Amino acid sequence: MSFIQWKATGQGVSPDVVTYSIVIAALSRMGRLTDAIEKFNEMTALEVQPDTTVYHSLIQGCCIDGYLVKAKELMFEMMNGGIPRPNIVFFSSVINSLCKEGRVMDAHDVLDLVIGIGERPNVITFNSLIDGYCLVGNMDKAFKILDVMESVGVEPNVVTYSALLDGYSKNRRIDDALTLFREMPRKRIKPDTVTYGIMLDGLFRAGRTVAAMEMFHEMTESGTTVDIFIYNIILGGLCRNNCVDEAIALFQKLRAMNVKFNIEILNTMINAMYKVQRKEEAKELFATISANGLVPNESTYAVMIRNLLKGGAVEDADNMFSSMDNSGIVPSSHLINDIIRMLLKKGEIAKAGNYLSKVDGKSISLEASTTSLLLSRKGKHQVDIKLLPAKYQFFDGFG
Fold it and tell me: Which segments carry the PPR repeats (predicted)?
């Protein structure tokens, strides 16, 4: 006697379809498909009629675990019992889940099952599969999905093309992305903001700055909405490709147009201004953050602190760190290590000690490069060693 039967008879009742449905769904989600099928067989032996929920749980479990023959068997059993089989929304969800796990071949097998039983996949089904192939870097397979779509009479949409473009860009095939992008008008598919964002990011990451800016102008002329997401890509891309002056000029033009920036863009521009020695402009921009209705985050303070230390403004960097601390912002472990290393390299052993005291081995740990630098200071700045936290006075490098 199973636990369900024992529990039910002990209560003077018989297990019903709801009881079995809950247990079978739980077992299927836990990956215990064999146990779920055993419960299914048990309920049918007790003449408890399975409902749609029970069948859906089992069919989903079979698809996820690769038992497609069993899934097909269950579907025919449903239909013979007068219960409608799962629809394409159900199968699209299964395919999407498999693709997100990187199991795109299993997802494709489910698609073949769907087509085989006469169910018509929709554009959402195919978009999930394209995403899956892009995720594992199989762009040739991803592109061939367009042919499969055509064969079953499903028209690709802007999401389909955007997924492929993103895959090509992330797999460093920007020329293939450009070719596909130029085909969109011929297919009567208009690129949207997301599509342009993908292409702009891909071009900048490929170092194709001129082509990226040409596409940006093309985007504005087409009337496509340019949002903060796009400005972030443009300004960040220009800065990464050493076109900082151009980025600053565009930033100032956008400010004059009262474009509302987010904190990520301001962080990028502050760092860019420091990079080309426009320090006063960087400080002024930092000072205007609150006036712009924004709040500095950890990245903002990190940009300021690192650049102040690079410029030798140790006291200003200390004050900036105190401001961050007073704002309740927790510094990252990487920032603390960066500060320690920069101070050690400048011979500011005592100040480095203040930050070493923040290393707790939990949220903030000492990085290997920081430890290496501590060890390399052998014989240097011996007068300041006593100012280090006690546990760091015993490094061999200081002995």
Answer: 16-50, 51-85, 87-121, 122-156, 157-191, 192-226, 227-261, 262-296, 297-331
